[in-house]
Design a protein that fits this description.
Length: 206
Amino acid sequence: MTPQPIAPDQSEVLLRVIEAAPQVCRRHQFFVWTQGDFQRWLPHKISICGSYDRDQRDVVFDIFNSIPLPDAVVQGLRSIRSDIVQAGLTAWRKSRSQAAVLSLRRDVLPQPLSLALLELGYDQIMVHGLTRPGRADELESFFMFAQPRAEYGEATQQALDMLLPCVHMAYQRVCVTERQMGQARTGAQAAATSRASLRLTGSPEK
């Protein structure tokens, strides 16, 4: 793929996206970040984001969509074993771990999930990812971007190539923050339950 020149106004867009990224720590902040200048750099209505979870020892996916989607589609896109995610991984690996375009019509066998997306106007999906440090065959993160009737080309692939490190770092930070907050809430709830149990049994608290 031959690098395409970037217009000055687009360079400013990319700079603003990168400058805003360090403020992204929560799931809702990630969604808001991808709806501003990010859209001018990489237009999309759906983003499917995966990150390796060391507790589950697998890549766990989440979906961010700015327009409504059927629940079955949302749940299907959250699974690493779905036909679309697997086809996206295959397309990415065939491109030697560079940004790639997945076509649902061309690259995915007709299945309920892909047919539902095609009916909604989705065909092309931009995909990209990173492998775990020192483990080239294991994913660290994976991203898929789509919008209805999109025609993604080399310019869009280059845009995602340039933005990937920033997206990766922002989403990793979100995953770590959300996990820590979830663990803190679980710990607080367990402590509250324990205190309530002690009060009911009349046992003295230590």
